[in-house]
Amino acid sequence: MEERDFRDDVAEEMATRQIETEQIGMERGQDKYRLTGALWAKIVAFILLFASVIAGGLGLLGCISVGMEGFYEGSLEEVLARQLRSPSISAIYEAIGHIESGDIREAEAYCRERNVDLELCENRGERRGEERVLWSTWDGYETKYITEIFTVLEFQEDVDVLVDGVYLAAGEEYLFRAYVNPDFPIEDNFRRLAETVEMVYGIRFALIGIAAVGILLSILMFIFLMCGAGHRNGRKGIAPGVLATIPFDVLTFLFGCVAVVVCALGLEIVRSMGTVAVIVLLTCVGAVLAVWGTLYCMEFAVRLKRGNCFRYSLIYMVLRRLWRMCRFLGRGTAAMLRDLPMVMTVVAAYLGLCIMEFLGILLFFSRAEELSILLWCMEKVALFAVVVYIALACRKLLIAGSALAEGEADYKVDTSRLVWSFKEHGENLNSLGQGITKAVAERMRSERLKTELITNVSHDLKTPLTSIINYADLICEETSVESNARTAGEGTGETADTRVCCPDISKIAEYAQVLLRQSRRLKKLLEDLLEASKATTGNLEVNLEPCEVGVLLSQAVGEYQQRMEEKQLDLITRQPEEIASILADGRHLWRVFDNLLNNICKYAQENSRVYLSVEQRERDVLIIFRNMSKYPLDISVEELEERFVRGDKSRHMEGNGLGLSIAKSLVELQGGRMEIIIDGDLFKVLLGFAAI
C-alpha cells in the first residue's frame, strides 16, 4: 500500500508539472524582447564564463607564483639573480662530479658550453674569505650573478687530482664560486631562463589585471545567467528547463557525481605531466566545473522562481508520506482514547504497566530477592497516588471546560491544589471565562450601537422627508385656492380677481426654497451614506501617487477661508521648510481635508483659533487639525467615529455625522492612519502617512 501511495504521489507531482508546462506553453505571445531571455545571449555568456574562468585562474596562479618568487619585491637584476642561483648550484655540482672523478678537462668543457664559469678556491683554516684560487674558468668579466657554496670533496678510490700544483684532499672543505655571464652569448638553459624571467617580470602587473578582469567577468556572467534562468523570449512567466522532470535531490546527486568524476580524472592525468601543463590542465578542469556548476545553479534558480524546488524531490515525497502515516496513526489513537472515560483510561494504563513489571520480576529475579519485590510494591503505591492525582486534576479541568462550553462564563477553576501544567491550564480556563464575558459585553455594545445607528439614520431621513411633505402640502393649498377661485368665477361670470385674492407668490417661492434645500440635504445624506459604505468595504478605486501635502492643504483651506471669517475663526497654519510628500490619492485626500474643515466650520467655537500643521517626523508625515469645540465633548472617541454620531447630540445643526467615518475609511484605504484626540474642549485630528 505504501509503494502504491508513493507512486501516486510521484504521478500527481508529475501531472502537476505537466499542467504547468502546458499552461506556460499556451501563454506564448507578445512578450517584450529581453536579453535575459535570448538563447544566443546565454550561449555567449557560457563561452565567456569558460574563457574568463580560465583567464582569471591562470592570471591568479601566475600572480601567486611570481609573488612567491619575489617578482614584486625587487628590480629585474635582483629577481634574475635569485632565479639563476638554482641552475648555478646545479652547474657547480655537475663540475664537482667531474672533479671527484679526476676529469678536470671535462669540467672545463662543461663550462665552455654554457654561460657559466666556475672557480675552485682553497679554504685556509677557520678564516673564510682568505682563500686561494686553485682552479678557474672565469676570465674576469663583470657580473652580478655570482653564487658561492662550500662543500667537502669525496674522491673515488685511487684517484688523485692535481690542481695548480696542489693535490686536492678528500674530506677537506673547498669553496666553489659560479659566475654567470650577463651577456648570455651561448644558447643554453641560463639564457632561456633569463629571457623567461625578463618576460615574466615585464608582465607581472598585467597578470594582476588579467586575474581581476577574468574573475569580475566570470562573476558578471554568472549573475546574468542566474537572472536569465527560466526566462525565454516569447513566453510569459518562468519556463521549465529540460531537466524539470528530474527530482531535485536526484538532480543534485547526478551533478555531484559528474563533478567528482571530472576531478578524479583531472588528478589522475596531472600525475604524469610537468608543472606548466599541470597548471593549465587544472585551470581547464576548474573552468569546466564552473560551467557545470552554473548549469546546476540555473536549474536550482528556475525551481526557486517556480516555487517547487524542494516540494518536487524524493526526500520531500517520502517525508510527506511518513508524516501522513504518523498523523493518521496519531489521530486514530487519539480518537480511540477519546471514546474511553479519562479516569478509566488512566487506571487501565496503570494496571497494565503494573502487570508487565510484575511478570518481568517473576521471570528475571530469583525468590531470594524479596527486598526487590518490596521496593517495587512501595514504588507502585507512590505511583498510584500520582496517577490518581493526575486523573482527578484532569477531571476538574474537564468539568471546567464543559461549564465554559455551556455558557457559564463566571465558572472558576479552583487552582489552589493544582501544580505544574495543570495549574497553568486552570488559570487559562479562568482567563477564557473572562474573555467570554468581555466578548459578550462587546457584542451587547455592538448591538446597542447598531440600534442607535438605525435610530439616527431614521431621524436624519425623516426630518428632510417631513419638511418636503409639509411644504409640498402648503404649495398645493396655495395653488388649490387659485383653482377654486377660477372655477367659481366661471360659474357666476365674474373674474377670480373680483371674488378672491391671488395666491401669495412669495410664500410659494419660500416653500420651494425649503423644498429645494431639504431635497439637497436628503441627496447629500444618501450620497454620503453610499460613499461611507464604499469606503468601509474598500470598493473605491484608489490611485496612489506622490502628493505635496502642503499645497493640497493650502488649496482646501482657501475654499473655507470665507466661512471661517464669517465664524470669526482665526486660522493658523504651520508647514515645514522642506516640501513634505506622501503617497496618496489626491481626490480622496481632498475629500478628507474637506470633511475635517467642514466639521471645524460647524462645531468650532466662534472667536477662537484653529491650528493646521504639517510635521515631518523621521519617516512619517503628520497632518494635525486642532480646534476648540462649541459643544461639550462628553463622548468617547470610539463613539465619535461611528456613523451618524455628531458632537451636537440635539441633531439640530446641518450635517449627518458621516464626515469623520468617511475620512477615517478614506485615510486607511490610502495606507495611512487617523487618530482623534479629545482633551476637554480641545478636538484634535491626527493624520499619519509614510513620507517619500
Descriptive labels:
single chain, 692 residues, alpha+beta, 19 helices
Strand proportion: 5-15%
Count of DSSP E strands? 13
**Taking Cα atoms only, what radius of gyration do you get, to the nearest Å?**
51 Å
> What structural class is derived from the secondary structure elements?
alpha+beta
Task: Please summarize the sheet with the most strands.
Answer: 5 strands, mixed
Low-pLDDT runs of 5+ residues are 21-31, 494-500
Instruction: Report the average pLDDT across residues.
Output: 78
Specify the number of helices. 19
The coarse overall form would be elongated
Residue share in helix: 55-70%
The side-by-side strand order for the widest beta sheet comes to 8-10-11-13-12
Give the distance, in angstroms, between the N- and C-terminal Cα atoms: 60 Å
What topology does this entry show?
Blueprint: H1 2-26, H2 39-68, H3 76-100, H4 104-112, E1 116-123, E2 131-136, E3 146-152, E4 162-163, E5 166-167, E6 173-180, H5 189-202, H6 204-228, H7 248-270, H8 275-306, H9 314-338, H10 342-364, H11 370-405, H12 420-492, H13 496-499, H14 505-537, E7 545-548, H15 549-559, H16 561-566, E8 570-574, E9 581-584, H17 586-603, E10 609-617, E11 620-628, H18 637-640, H19 659-669, E12 673-679, E13 682-690
Helix pairs in contact: 1-9, 2-6, 2-8, 3-4, 3-5, 6-8, 7-8, 10-11, 11-12, 12-14, 14-19, 15-17, 17-19
